[in-house]
UniProtKB/TrEMBL annotation:
Keywords recorded for this protein, A-Z: Antibiotic resistance, ATP-binding, Cell membrane, Membrane, Nucleotide-binding, Translocase, Transport
InterPro entries reported for this sequence: AAA+_ATPase, ABC_transporter-like_ATP-bd, ABC_transporter-like_CS, DrrA, DrrA1/2-like_C, P-loop_NTPase
EC number per UniProt: 7.6.2.2
Topological relation to the membrane, as annotated: Peripheral membrane protein
Top-level class of the enzyme under EC nomenclature: translocase
Name of the molecule in the record: ABC-type xenobiotic transporter
Family to which the UniProt record says this protein belongs: Belongs to the ABC transporter superfamily. Drug exporter-1 (DrugE1) (TC 3.A.1.105) family.
Record GO terms (molecular function): ABC-type xenobiotic transporter activity; ATP binding; ATP hydrolysis activity
PROSITE patterns hit by this protein: ABC_TRANSPORTER_1 (PS00211), ABC_TRANSPORTER_2 (PS50893)
Domain ABC transporter: 8-240
GO BP terms: daunorubicin transport; doxorubicin transport; response to antibiotic
Coiled coil start-end: none
Length: 344
């Protein structure tokens, strides 16, 4: 049997922005048709840049990509007809009504008359916007606007739908509703969805396969269950009273790894994380070993493997720390921008 051609295939994408910012450093992505694929990574990892290239809004410095079988550089027009894009920033006209937005989008794709009306009604009903169809979009709640954005992306029945951070900025209730919508869409015949997210839980819930992106490339890929399953046993995290110096780490690592049922020992600032076959059973031995060498422990927690642990293992830092680092880099950038603006 022939395996179907991938719906999305990107090979070794490299993209540098002015100022020597490396956004992509060899990005590989393969998405099988009819599946939901999640690009998961902290802010600044390169997810949006990947989506921009795949949706023909940006060109890579090098590398190749096809979407729905069309080369993004050679046949961008064909790619655009085959895809729907829901960008982070809404494309809807706030002073037009929901219905008008959908009608305009439909016309852009050549729909007219009864076919256009049917498609618009279908989408309004499907995304629970029929009652609000005649209201201006600026009066919609965040969740309603987001649902309209997705409907707009689907007007022309694309083969591949790109959802860039579909739930960022939504309250928890609207986020759960959006997750249900995406799950329903995924059941649609043949639709392939590539979504980007920085929410671990979102990727875990929605995507059949996940690629974890860090610093412009994929560090590991697989189904959420397989990725978590690779990490045998439980995670035990211990918060130390003070950080251990480099020299102490090596011997500590050796002595902790030697404990029965303990596999991996990772240091991360004042935190030590280990894998243990039975986390609760390992804690007393771990605490005892640390106490013998005079390392004080402020807190210890045991957890089943999560995508957070997968990220730590492959990216070498905790997800929350990567997010915090990205956020502080961003705020430095905006301060610089302000300084530039002020100086101009
Ligand atoms: P993500 O979507 O994962 O948050 P992005 O693809 O937006 O990541 O960004 C990757 C890197 O490229 C970041 O360091 C970001 O600051 C930088 N970057 C993105 N867009 C631009 C741009 N237009 N100009 C300069 N740098 C950019």
């Amino acid at each position: 049997m022939n395996t179907p051609a991938p719906a999305v295939e990107a090979r070794q994408l490299i993209k540098t922005y002015p100022g020597d910012v490396t956004a992509l450093s060899g990005m590989d992505v393969t998405v099988e048709p009819g599946t939901v694929f999640g690009l998961l990574g902290p802010n600044g990892a390169g997810k949006s840049t990947t989506v921009k290239i795949l949706t023909t809004l940006a060109r890579p410095d090098s590398g190749t990509a096809t979407v729905a079988g069309h080369d993004v550089l050679r046949h961008p027009d064909r790619v655009r007809r085959a895809i729907g894009v829901v960008a982070q920033k809404s494309g809807a006209d706030p002073v037009a009504t929901g219905r008008e937005n959908l009608q305009l989008q439909g016309r852009l794709y050549g729909l007219r008359g009864a076919a256009l009306r049917r498609r618009v009604d279908e989408l309004l009903a499907r995304f629970h916007l029929a009652d609000a169809a005649g209201r201006q979009v600026k009066g919609y709640s965040g969740g309603m606007q987001r649902r309209l954005d997705v409907a707009l992306g689907l007007v022309h029945r694309p083969e591949v739908l790109f959802l860039d951070e579909p739930t960022t900025g939504l309250d928890p209730e609207a986020r759960t509703a959006m997750w249900d919508e995406i799950t329903r869409l995924a059941g649609d015949e043949g639709l392939t969805i590539l979504l980007t997210t920085h929410y671990l839980e979102e990727a875990d819930r929605l995507a059949e396969r996940i690629a974890i992106v860090d610093r412009g490339r994929v560090v590991v890929e697989g189904t959420p269950d397989a990725l978590k399953g690779e990490l045998r046993g439980d995670a035990v995290h211990m918060e130390l009273r003070e950080a251990v110096g480099d020299s102490g780490r090596t011997s500590l690592k050796d002595s902790l790894s030697a404990l029965p049922g303990v596999h991996e020992v990772l240091f991360d600032g004042r935190r030590i994380s280990v894998r243990a076959e039975d986390g609760a059973a390992a804690v007393p031995a771990l605490l005892g070993a640390l106490e013998r060498v005079g390392v004080g422990v402020a807190a210890a927690t045991v957890a089943r493997p999560s995508l957070d642990d997968v990220y730590l293992r492959y990216a070498g830092r905790r997800y929350a720390d990567a997010e915090a680092a990205a956020d502080s880099a961003e705020s430095t950038e905006s301060t610089e921008n302000l300084a530039l603006a002020g100086g101009a």
